[in-house]
Amino acid sequence: MIYLDEILQGAKTVGITGHVRPDGDCVGSTLGVYNYICDNMPQVDVDIYLQPIKEEFQFLRNSDKVKEKADAGKVYDVFIVCDCAAYDRFEDFRVCFENAKKKVVFDHHISGQEIGDMNMIAPDLSSCSELIYEAMNPEKVSKSVAECLYLGIIHDTGVFKYQAVTARTMQIAGALMEKGIDFTSIIDNTFYMRTYRQSQVLGKALLESVLFCDGRCIFTILTKQEMEFYGVTSKDLGGVVEQLRLNDTVEVAIFLYEVEKNEYKVSLRSKNIVDVSRIAKRFGGGGHIRAAGFDMSANHPRDIVNNIGALVEQQLKK
Fold first, then answer.
1. Are 209 and 119 in the same domain?
2. Are residues 135 and 89 part of one domain?
3. pTM, two decimal places
4. Which of 1, 142, 156, 248 has a beta carbon 3.0–4.6 Å from 127's, enabling a disulfide?
5. What would the pLDDT profile of 197-216 be if each residue is shown by its tens digit?
6. Domain residues for 311?
7. Sign of the CA dihedral running 162, 242, 90, 144
């Protein structure tokens, strides 16, 4: 492990970013690093770049400092990418990364890429936020940093229920709780709380879901037109694929939503047998053994489902 304090030694300017459509772990890990630098290295000029973050994450300190457009002319001493290790996952801010004197990547996904000068890739960890904590001096972790990292961990572990959770994950969560964070509110208000529209679209997705592969797989699809009808965006769809996965006979859940005409975001979840990261990698995506995803074009989204289904069946037969 290479520690943040060592990475940032002598740096006067630092940039930070994460992946497109930032989820809880992306926001938590990037803002965690940002706040850690602000707290312990006030002499450093630090910027954070992300696409718009969800309203429920905006309680985090310095979330209002997030920049949504790259400063292409600025050359950073250090530029840190969290929660992804592929250029197409942070394309909006790639120029900042490429111009930097030192490029650093923290990730816990299986991508097979090493794009930084320093790459801390730990696919066995529950989340990038867990990895970031391990890279920090725990004595320098403030309450605001702890809030960020705790949020990241609960979102990428489904509140500590996924298989990537280890005893060390729980130890870290406990250490973050000891910083005085309101952990119950973070869980309730950012993970479980839904707006009425989110509940409506979840109900539609579940109502129109389809079982196949002898009940071992389930899928549902939301078109762009349907999302517009309900007044929701991609940020409102968290939890849909998880609810699909909770059906009793299901091993693999598949959720597709249309981001542009004939362009789909695909999320995969499994319970015990199928390695969905292998399937996602076949289509240019990635992720974890039990949670992965990719983007794909198709005139008929069921073609995507059929392709996934064939790969799921191969693994189930083995």
1. no
2. yes
3. 0.85
4. 156
5. 999 999 999 999 999 999 99
6. 196-317
7. negative
